[in-house]
Structure formats: structure tokens, C-alpha cells
């Protein structure tokens, strides 16, 4: 299952309008007991790395029973995180200090979706 972006993923992401704002949709499915590890990761990201790179959490919420979804499409948590540019996101995930905490996210998740979005209209 996908959890972390690869170098090729990040290269393609950055090639598409690197200096335009982006809102990252995060769909998260936790491993058993993973919420605690993710909470430690989220604390580091929201207090250190988002401010450093100009990002902000727009929305964070727990998932519940889906209204319309196929089996296996329910998510434990949903986040929307705004970054001033795609480049800012890429610089954040390449930050050596960020790399020291990203393992908390990886060990917490069974599956994840990181979907870049841009405003329409």
C-alpha cells in the first residue's frame, strides 16, 4: 500500500507548476495503534515545519462511516494542508530535520493518499 511519496513522485509533483499554491488532500488509514505515532508526527509538523515553509492546516477531521463508498474505501482521518507553493512542500519533505520525524508518519499508517489540489475557477 502507498504511504510515502517516492523521489520520482516528488519530481513529477514539482514539475507541475512549482511556484503555484497547492492544497494537499491527505486521506489516512492507521495501523492498529498508529494514531499515537501519527499524533507525535503531526505535532512536530504543525509546530515546526508548516510555519517554517509557510504551510497551514486548513481542515483536520476524523473519518466516520462513509455515506457512499465501496468496501475498503473508508478513511480514519482527512486533512487539508495549504502550502504557498509546490516547491515549499518539496523543500519541507527534503528538510533534514523533517526527515528525522517522518518515520513516525510511516509507522503510523497502513495506507495514505496525498492528492495535490488547486482551486478551480
CATH-derived architecture? 2-Layer Sandwich
Number of helices: 5
What is the arithmetic mean of pLDDT? Answer: 93
How many beta-strand runs?
4
Main β sheet profile? 4 strands, antiparallel
| SSE-based structural type | alpha+beta
For the biggest β-sheet, the strand order reads 2-3-1-4
Question: What report would you give on this structure?
Answer:
- The chain is α+β, with helices and mostly antiparallel strands and about 120 residues long.
- The longest helix has 20 residues, at about 35-55.
- Helix 2 (about 35-55) crosses helix 3 and helix 2 packs antiparallel against helix 5.
- The protein has a single domain, classed as Alpha-Beta Plaits (2-Layer Sandwich), CATH 3.30.70.100.
- The protein is built from five helices and four strands.
What would a concise description of this structure say?
The protein has 5 helices and 4 strands.
